[in-house]
Write the structure tokens for this entry.
Amino acid sequence: MMRHLVLLLCVLLGAARVWAADSPSVQVQTVAFKQQTMTDTVSGYGMVSPDTRALHTLSLPRAGQIVALLVSAGQVVKKGMPLLEFGTSAESTLSYQQARQAVDFAKSEVARVGELASQQLATQSQLANARKTLADAEAALRTQEKIGANRTSERLVAPFDGVVMAIQAAQGDRVAAGAPVMQLARAGGQRVLVGVEPDEVARVRPGMSVSIAPVFGVGHQSMGRVTQVFGMVNPQTQFVDVLVQLPDAALIPGTRVHAEIQVDQQTGWTVPRSAVLLDAQGSYIFQVHDGRAHRVNVKTGLERGGLVLVQGGFASGEPVVSLGNYELRNGMAVRGSAR
């Protein structure tokens, strides 16, 4: 009898080993949850230019001729640096001489009428008119002196540190009073007109942060803000323009740049994109607990750099299957290593 019991026990133990060997087990690779902040961006390209509020047009208040140009477009200038030499026109010089002569004549008239008035040969009204004529002549002379008509030539200097953006006159040109001759950009603020795909621009709002970096080579990265979103497609580029203001002047005007507009930001638990599966019930992941895979339904958020933000009833301290999960069923035994 005892021999039969021992034999039966051996048979049962052998069967248990067979059943264990036949139990399905899948080789997988697992990763741990990581908590981090993700930023969703809209990309675009543009060119750096000076802030239009920093542009300053130089002109001369009197007619004359450009005798010499001392700078070129694109040149960096310092305050007080000579920009051009200007010669006063003959007409402006004549106007000054006439104003000077009018003052001299008015002074002599005041003296003459004053002398007559002292002899009762002229009225006080006549003397008052003579004095008014002198005051008007002196005012006209001051105006001519203010515009520099009393100087035959003048050297125009930079009023501030900046960059010569444009030169509207050539050496030897005759220019009218008030005509623009040069445009300077004050050192400081810059802007970028970024072209964005029409189907992406609806996500962009004024006030959003923007990362700006040169397209070619490694250069300084600047942060700016969206100040304006245009409402039509630019016919030349077929993109929608977005105006970005830069607070500093770290980039050279004319530099082509790549812009990343930060349209959304979320913080949470992330897993590799390969860890998230999808079926009729929605997105889900597999977590490993006590050597077995357990399905957990999740909602996905932002995706960037191969990682996805997930929300759901998972245990953040337990590993997530990132490779081999396509073969898994809920409760299936797994084996493998963590990455």
Notes: The chain has four domains: 25-37+267-338, 41-52+188-266, 55-89+151-184, 90-146. Residues 110 and 131 are 6 Å apart (CA to CA). Residues 5-9, 11-22 have pLDDT under 50 and may be disordered. The radius of gyration is 42 Å.
